[in-house]
Design brief:
Strand order of the largest sheet: 4-7-6-5
Oligomer: single chain
Structural class: alpha/beta
Largest sheet: 4 strands, mixed
Strand content: 25-35%
Shape: globular
Number of helices: 3
């Protein structure tokens, strides 16, 4: 049997804030999930995105410590339909109070690219092909 990637996990210090951020990115997270210590959503394609509070992780891994010095917990990338959507989504998220890390720019690898930080400081890339024909 060959292992396959099934889930990506986010360890969060503020579950409600993290879920609100990812809802703005279009994830279908059930209402009321903020009251649970563990949340899962199935993504298109069948993989899952999971959230656990720091307290949940510490409950089964007593030696776990919050990353220090700005260390990331996870990094995600969301594809957009166009360079204009990258710009608009970045502006919407920053306008809603989230921290912009890298303003939208035309990357040398042929994408419009930007990075916003989620409430736990994880980098979330927003990108689209700079060429309308390629996605």
């Amino acid at each position: 049997m060959t292992p396959r990637l099934d889930a990506i996990s986010i360890i969060t210090s503020d579950l409600a804030a993290s879920l609100a951020f990812y809802r703005r990115l279009g994830l279908d997270i059930p209402d009321g999930a903020e009251s649970a210590p563990h949340v899962e959503v199935t993504l298109p394609g069948g993989q899952r995105l999971l959230w656990d509070t720091e307290e949940v992780i510490a409950s089964f891994d007593p030696e776990w410590q919050r990353p220090a010095g700005g260390g990331e917990r996870v990094a995600l990338a969301f594809v957009c339909d166009s360079p204009a959507e990258v710009d608009a989504l970045y502006a919407e998220l920053v306008g809603a109070g989230y921290t912009g890390h890298l303003k939208p720019w035309d990357a040398e690898w042929g994408q419009r690219y930007a990075v916003v930080l989620d409430p736990d400081g994880c980098g979330v890339s927003l990108f689209a092909s700079a060429s309308p024909a390629a996605k």
